[in-house]
Amino acid sequence: MAVIQVERKPLTFAERTYIPQILSGLKTTWKHMVAPNVTLQYPEQRPEIPQGYRGVPTLVKDPHGREKCVSCQLCEFVCPPKAIRITPGEIPTGTENRHVEKAPQAFDIDMLRCIYCGFCQEVCPEEAIWLQDVYSTTGYTREEMVNHKDKLYELGGTLPDKHFKWDHKKAAEEHGNAH
Amino acid sequence: MEFLLDHPLILAVIKGIAVIAVIFPLAGACSMAERKVSAWIQGRPGPNRAIPPWFAWVPVLGPLLQKLGAFHLMADGAKFLFKEDPVPGNVNKFYFILAPIIAVIPAFTTVTVVPFGAYFDRAGHAIPMALAHVDIGILAIFAIGSLGVYSLILAGWASNSKYPFLGGVRASAQLISYELSMTLSVIPVFLWINAPGTTGSLSLARVVEFQAQPGLWGGLWFLFIMPLSAFIFLTALFAETNRQPFDMPESEADLVGGFHTEYGAFKWSLFFVAEYAHMIVGSAVFVLLFLGGWNILPWIPLGGVLHWIEVHTHLPVFSNAIVAGIISILVFITKVCFFIFLFMWVRWTVPRFRYDQVMKIGWQKLLPLSIANLVFYAIAIALIQK
């Protein structure tokens, strides 16, 4: 590579007084001073949460109101810090969703252990557990920071369902397993 | 009650307490303004959260003061007062505790001789308001203000540690270097106002009076008549108050130590109250000498404006001493506030000079320049005022 000679001109008299440089510096900082600032005044203003944000894990219901979790315990086994504790249970005969057969009796996520990795959401075969946009959880005691099943369903709400697989299965059974 | 106020000692004590009670909050407000101005320059809002809970209910004033960060001032003051004040084991205890006291005393004393405003008596003459209206105004300020150097030397020495020692030595060298240029640069102003035949005076109020005279050359502020003096004085003022770009003692603190390394809560805040008080007094002296003090604009003296308002609206702004005094104080304080803002603006714009650059500028550039300036103006004034 060729050598490039950088020309270092000696400072002019005006430049040696440093006044022009100081004045142009003052102009720059003045422009910064009067520019509107982009600081977000938390907690009065909240940030926009993008799609796919990994917040607090929640359980969701499908658009027909059925609780989707079937207590297969895959999320409990994949959770790295073992934050999830599930007691599986049975859906009693005679109710509407008997064809699903299983639903959790107790579902606890200890938020003091959760690392928001999202593995539980990735592994769930029912698309029942989703990490949504709650990003700040606080409490005064350790018991308060464990989210139980009803709290999880309350945080989760209802999400759209693309498959409705249990409804398709029930319909297929009734029509004699066409496929 | 009158006999209490007539007794000179009691009056002096009251004035002293007034100076402390006014300058401490002002210095705190200065430090708060510094944080806000630096924040705006850096593109952020600055401290805007502290508020006493009951004040938040006041409708308009509460949120406005909260956004301006006014209550952080009280929070900071209270914090410095109640924090544990450390005195390390290996320091020279007497000088360690003496140094901040010596820093604060000259800073507050110079406040007493600065005239803050003027009211007008029956004959229309401006009577300046100062806590101690002495005739040697500027000389008292320079003489007493320079005593602040001792506090830096003592602080650096008493801390019994390498970095504060170096910081104290450099700070004292910087301060004494720029004192000469500062005093030489304002002499042309006093040559001008002490024309042969008039009673001689170094009083700052007379300088302001001279900038309010009728006529083209009379009403012009000294900033325009003697710009080089003003420039040298401003540069030396930046150096004397340890502000950027000459803030080696204050910000070499960020790099290594500096004279206030070993200092804790209240003693540290005393050093900074002294520095902001020096800044306020320095800006006030610059405004009085070069920017016409409490006059509103060049060729528009305060007395003339107030007289015009009184004649046309019949409000007693000219004849009522209290109203005229308050208006003159407000005009003066606006100008001083602009200068304090300028100090902070320059601080967050310009990097600091190296120690050898500071010494070179002080002795090899500013001193010959101020001597040449003095000689030029002495000859010019002698020719004009023969």
Chain-wise SSE layout:
The complex is a heterodimer of chains A (179) and B (386).
Chain A lengths: L12 H4 L2 H16 L22 E3 L14 H5 L5 E7 L11 E9 L8 H5 L5 E3 L14 E2 L1 H8 L8 H10 L5
Antiparallel strand pairs in A: 1-4, 2-3, 3-5
Chain B lengths: L1 H5 L1 H34 L19 H8 L1 H13 L10 H20 L4 E4 L5 E4 L7 H9 L2 H11 L3 H32 L10 H7 L11 H4 L1 H14 L7 H8 L9 H26 L11 H12 L7 H27 L7 H30 L2
Antiparallel strand pairs in B: 1-2
Helix pairs in contact in B: 2-4, 2-13, 2-15, 4-13, 5-6, 5-7, 5-13, 7-8, 8-11, 8-12, 8-16, 11-13, 11-16, 13-15
Largest sheet of chain A: 3 strands, antiparallel
Number of domains of chain B: 2
Radius of gyration of chain A: 29 Å
Q: How large a portion of the residues of chain A is in β-strands, by DSSP E?
A: 5-15%
User: Distance between termini of chain B?
Assistant: 53 Å
As laid out across the biggest beta sheet of chain A, the strand order is 2-3-5
Helix content of chain A: 25-40%
State the distance separating the first and last CA atoms of chain A. Answer: 71 Å
Q: Give me the secondary-structure category of chain A.
A: alpha+beta
Give the C-level CATH assignment of the domain at 67-161 in chain A.
Alpha Beta
Overall morphology of chain A = elongated
Unreliably modeled segments of chain A: none
Describe this structure in words.
- Chain A has 179 residues and is an alpha+beta fold.
- Chain A has a domain at 67-161: Alpha-Beta Plaits (2-Layer Sandwich), CATH 3.30.70.
- In chain A, 27% of the residues lie in helices and 13% in strands.
- Chain A is built from six helices and five strands.
- The radius of gyration of chain A is 29 Å and the shape is elongated.
- Chain A starts with 12 loop residues before the first helix and ends in a 5-residue tail after the last helix.
- Chain B has two domains: 1-82, no CATH class; 89-384, no CATH class.
- Chain B has helices at residues 2-6, 8-41, 61-68, 70-82, 93-112, 137-145, 148-158, 162-193, 204-210, 222-225, 227-240, 248-255, 265-290, 302-313, 321-347, 355-384, and strands at residues 117-120, 126-129.
- In chain B, strand 1 (117-120) and strand 2 form a beta hairpin.
- In chain B, helix 5 packs parallel to helix 13 and helix 8 (162-193) runs antiparallel to helix 12.
- The radius of gyration of chain B is 22 Å and the shape is globular.
- The mean pLDDT of chain B is 84.
- The interface between A and B is medium-sized, with 13 and 12 residues.
